[in-house]
Design brief:
Order of helices and strands of chain A: EHEHEEE
Shape of chain A: globular
Helix content of chain B: 25-40%
Strand order of the largest sheet of chain B: 3-2-1-4-5-6-7-8
CATH architecture of chain A: Roll
Order of helices and strands of chain B: HHEHEHEHEHEEHHEE
Helix content of chain A: 10-25%
Distance between the termini of chain A: 39 Å
Distance between the termini of chain B: 48 Å
Strand content of chain A: 25-35%
Radius of gyration of chain B: 18 Å
Radius of gyration of chain A: 12 Å
CATH architecture of chain B: 3-Layer(aba) Sandwich
Largest sheet of chain A: 5 strands, mixed
Number of helices of chain A: 2
CATH class of chain B: Alpha Beta
Strand content of chain B: 15-25%
Largest interface: A-B, 21 and 45 residues
Oligomer: heterodimer
CATH class of chain A: Alpha Beta
Amino acid sequence: MKLRIMYFAKLRDLAGTSDETVVYGGQTVSDLMGTLMKTHPGLLNAGKIMFAVNEQFVSPSAKLKDGDVVALLPPLNGG
Amino acid sequence: MVMLLPFSRLSMEDKLPMNINRYRGQIALEEISMEGQKKLSSAHVSIVGIGGTGSSAAELFSRIGIGTLTLIDPDVVAESDLHRQVLYSESDVGTPKVDAASNRLRAENGDLTILKFRNRLDESNAERLLLGSDIIYDGTDNFESRDTLNRVAVRTKTPLVMTSAVDYYGQVKAIIPGVTSCLACIGYPEEGENISCSTMGIFPPVLSFVAAFGVNLAVKILLSLPVSGDYYHLDMKSLTVTKITARINERCPVCGSQSH
């Protein structure tokens, strides 16, 4: 399946891109993260990440389908 | 253009909890009006953490005429706070933030009632410190405190406006127990490595931006205007605001049983 991945805040720097299209053979968001971390090793230092698919928050176990837009956001803790 | 306000409908016997003339500019707004201003002037907002976002929010709440503010923060003002925490001056360095903030806010608005607690909010004191709040504004700077606020808000059915910021980025979400999702619904962490503004860096204008956004949500809630539980990511590098739908998670460990 083909997915569009969007990186927010510092994840953009760690991935080296703000968004990209990937061809993915797995099933879940969690599996996808494993794949992305291989492509962009900087993401290994990302810490906690929240996931949204098609502009809606999902859990890491959420299943993906062709054409999904996956957003990766770091939860910010400062104030 | 001269805006004629319906003040003539008020009799001299009407006891208004505020100086009408002072708020004339915002009373002219249809969504606020006289009724809304009365609500704001009798509202009680608690601000937990009066640092970067919290001090900007406190100033806005004070100026728009919120009746009572509770300020909660354990820290003293440091020189390194001055570039971004708008309530404090050089002469405040070394002073407890709750004292410096209340002095400044009282000077801005003498009608404001302030309750101040020089405490770190935790599960043991949260309900006591937040007693009577119509809204809680989250100005904390760590995952653990934010998780505590989320749980207390859900337990006491008190609306919470979460704000956070670091670097050039901010995030804002309203939590209205029983109506919207909470932080746990969307996978916001209960704990984790806290990256402070002083180590990661913070662009001061993002704090005002985030605070203004959060105060806007809080005022809407106080005025009973529609507010969703959507999550807003504010990015001052790319000058974008992204809204992500944050639906109630029926199996949420914090609010799941209330989400019906």
